[in-house]
Write a structure and sequence with these properties.
This protein is an alpha/beta fold. The protein is built from 8 helices and 10 strands. The mean pLDDT is about 95. This is Glycine transferase.
Length: about 230
C-alpha cells in the first residue's frame, strides 16, 4: 500500500494531484502548526497573461495553532470575480468554474474540510478515486520528529511505501525509512506545457488553470508526467 501525506492546500498545483493519483491513500496532514504565507490559503492563476496570486484569508491565523482548528474567511467574492474574469473565455470555464465557486462558497469554512472538498472535487472530475483522510482524525503515535510521524501514519494504515513531493528530498532520508521497514520514494514532476490560449505559457499555476484550458483527457495525460525516484 502506498501513502502520501500532504498539508491541505486550496486548489494546489498539478504535482499535488499527481501525488494523489499515484498513491492508494492521501492523508491531509492537518494536526501540525499552520504556516502563514504558504499554499494552504493561496495559489496562482493566469490573469491577463501574467502569474497572479489569489488568497483566501484565514481567520485568527497563527503559527501557534493547528491547521484543523482554523477556518477560512467568507470574503471570497473578490477571488471568484478574478477567477471568472481570468478564465471566462477559456474552453472549459463552464464545466470548471461552478466547481470552484461551490468549494469557495461552501458553508463549512473549516480549512481542512474546504481544502479537502476542493481536492476531492478535482479528483472526482477526473475520475480518480484516491481516498482522502485527515491526520487529525486518525489514531497514530505522534512524535516530535517529522520522519517518525510520517512512519507512524503509514503504520496506522498498514502501509509500507511512502511517497513524498520532491521538496522532501532535502528533509527525509531513505536509509532512515528503510531501517524502520518503509520504502521512501519521491515524485518528481516533469516539465509540462499546455495551451493557455493566446498567452505565453506560464508554469506552476493552480490546478484551476490546467482544468480551464485542458480537456479531461489532456489533464489526465499531464497527471502521468512524473518520475518516481
Amino acid at each position: 500500500m502506498k501513502v502520501a501525506v500532504m498539508q491541505p492546500y486550496l486548489f494546489p498545483y498539478l504535482g499535488y494531484y499527481q501525488l494523489a493519483k499515484c498513491v492508494d491513500t492521501l492523508v491531509l496532514y492537518d494536526d501540525v502548526n499552520y504556516i502563514p504565507r504558504g499554499y494552504i490559503n493561496r495559489n496562482y492563476i493566469l490573469y491577463q497573461g501574467r502569474k497572479w496570486r489569489f488568497t483566501v484569508p484565514v481567520m485568527g491565523a497563527s503559527i501557534h495553532k493547528k491547521i484543523y482548528t482554523l477556518s477560512f474567511s467568507r470574503n471570497v467574492s473578490g477571488v471568484l470575480q478574478s477567477i471568472r474574469h481570468a478564465y471566462s473565455k477559456a474552453p472549459y470555464f463552464d464545466a470548471v468554474f461552478p466547481m470552484v465557486e461551490e468549494v469557495l462558497e461552501r458553508e463549512d469554512r473549516d480549512i481542512t474540510d474546504m481544502c479537502s472538498s476542493g481536492i476531492r472535487e478535482v479528483l472526482d472530475y477526473l475520475e480518480i478515486g484516491t481516498p482522502l483522510l485527515r491526520s487529525s482524525r486518525m489514531e497514530y503515535n505522534k512524535h516530535p520528529g517529522r520522519s517518525q510521524n510520517l512512519m507512524e501514519i503509514c503504520s496506522s494504515l498498514g502501509a509500507c511505501e511512502y511517497v513524498n513531493s520532491p521538496g522532501g528530498r532535502l528533509i527525509y532520508d531513505k536509509k532512515e525509512f528503510s531501517s524502520c521497514g518503509y520504502n521512501l520514494s519521491f515524485l518528481e514532476p516533469r516539465e509540462v506545457h499546455y495551451n493557455q490560449g493566446k498567452n505565453e505559457f506560464v508554469p506552476n499555476l493552480s490546478m484551476i488553470d490546467v482544468l480551464m484550458w485542458c480537456s479531461k483527457d489532456q489533464a489526465m495525460a499531464l497527471l502521468d508526467e512524473y518520475d518516481i525516484v
